[in-house]
Amino acid sequence: MNRLKGKTALITGGSSGIGLASAKLFLSEGAQVAITGRDPERLAAAQKELGPASLVIRSEASSLVEINSLMEQVKNRFGKLDVLFLNAASVTPSPIDSVTEAQFDEIMNVNFKGVFFSIQKALPLLNSNASIIVTTSITNKTGTPIFNAYGASKAALRSLVQSLSLTLINRGIRINAINPGPIDTEGGRRLPLPPDVFQAVLSDIRARSPINRLGTPEEVAKVALFLASDDASYIVGEEIVVDGGISLVCLP
Prior knowledge:
The chain has about 250 residues and is an alpha/beta fold. The protein has eight helices and seven strands.
């Protein structure tokens, strides 16, 4: 199918996991794609997977200087944007008595400030009938003790999506959120947890999940494709949960 034929998409945090899976799916559906990331090695690997026609940019999601540069590069390459998928995130699991100011600022600057200003700076590039997609998390509604700051940052995004949906719809721009549960991604496997603790967490998630497994990046990418396409033309300000039902049984 060519659900994104003729459209241009920018995906932040696109060098691995959900972002990279979405980039590959968007390409297969006819889109031109730009992605961002931090790590040069993962960006180089992503470039090989996506091919030379895709724009791959090293960009810090929390820096206004780099956000401005990113939008200028996208403008110079493509001239316009039809899809803005804001997926970059910082995750530092830590109980509240161990969180440092630097960790807190990193989480809030990447997860909330960066998304806010990326939308602001992208507005001149967005066509009418454009779609903005924001990645939130089930931690924005469920209590998760070691993800206090992270969950709060994602709750701020949920609120932002709701308010901006009313602000932007008169410009023909739809904004919605994807709310993933436990997804098996490279980023998740890189969390700074001892191996035995990490495996215990995974086992606990599988035991609690109604579907008895973690999700895949490709499953989330399919929801991103739906929101990016005209199939979602009447969906505004929503947050679609993709979690195998685990939030229904109160993930702690």
